[in-house]
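MODEL INPUT / OUTPUT PAIR
PAIR INDEX: 1
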Amino acid sequence: MPEILILGREEIRAALDMPSLIDAVEQAFTAYSAGRAELPSVIHLDVPEHEGEIHIKAGYVHGGPHFAVKVASGFPGNEASGVPPSNGMVMVFDAATGASAAILFDGGHITDARTGAAGAVAARHLAPTAPRAVAVIGTGVQARQQVHALSHVRRFEEVRIWGRNADRAEGCAHDVRSLEVVASGGVVRVAASVREAVEGADIVITVTASRDALVKADWLAPGVHVTAVGSDGPDKQELYPDVLARADLVVADSVAQCVRMGEIHHAVAAGLLKEEEVVELGAVTADRHPGRTADEEITLCDLTGLGVQDVAAATLVMERMGEL
């Protein structure tokens, strides 16, 4: 039996630089939308007694050396006891034989990083080229990841962060400042309300686990781009449905998945958006559909998370470890 590579979180972090991961995730979206990938439905498991949720995702990109299966968990109550709220691992298999190739004990880092990379891919094709202000709704790990990844495809002068907990919002702002992502003389600050964060922003990123809509359509400035990340289940919602109705272009990481969950799911259910009006991100990255075409255009991307993103990240790790 061939030896199985086993890696821990820090080794995986060292292998995944964000610029390379953004490119790898973009290629995965392109392959998926072109029908060159296999993507089964997400398995969602709840542990209600502890407010835990587990997602199991898998994927394979045609012609690739590996397929992967990921288990990722989120237990927000862990923070009270000092245990990380996110955890998980990725199992990597040889695509030619099905043999086990690696176990990546990433502790949720692959999910965090590849989700940030997906936001950067969306921004690269849909966001204004010279944004001034970025609004971030949410204060968790993904808030930090999204801003970090965004800084590799756009320069900006201001980041406004809103969260329900003022201390966590200040902590998030402190961490974002340490990333040094804003332009010289720029500012990272905490907003007193969602509205204060969103109004006048050129890019709006939502990264909460909210079950109630937070962002209203009439707060959006002309030309804004919205990346919605938090609604990765049918009961989650960060945007009022009229936000999607107002958008000139609505993009999904997977149309089939987003009509079952995420912001598109709610807008379609409300009768404010038709499935056939939604464009897939991979069609944009492949230049089969235009992204942003005008300065005043409002664009929106709904990211619910695809297994091919995990395959892209895992393949990059394997490559950096000399396994390809």
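PAIR INDEX: 2
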Amino acid sequence: MSIWLLILASGAVVFLARASFIVFSDPARFPPGFRRALAFVPPAVLAAIVLPGLAMPHGTLAWGLDNPRLYAGLLAMLAAWRWRTPISSIAVGMGALWALQALGR
């Protein structure tokens, strides 16, 4: 029982610490450089989540031809850069992944 109270309490502390930044601050008073830097937070977090799954599919770094996820991910990034739509990157990335996996078998 005490472990659950500890988990709930630590979750509440983390939530309140993060919520205080949003609730008690005025974004208009942030310095311009800080506001510009905040625009890069979502892409950085997304890259930190996605890149290990692409480059390390089995827990070790795999750069060779035996890693179709990496090459499909690179093609998806190129599609996102070229057409700037999420659906294009999903379609190109999944299509490339399925094609590379079919070729590898």
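PAIR 2 NOTE: The mean pLDDT is 91.
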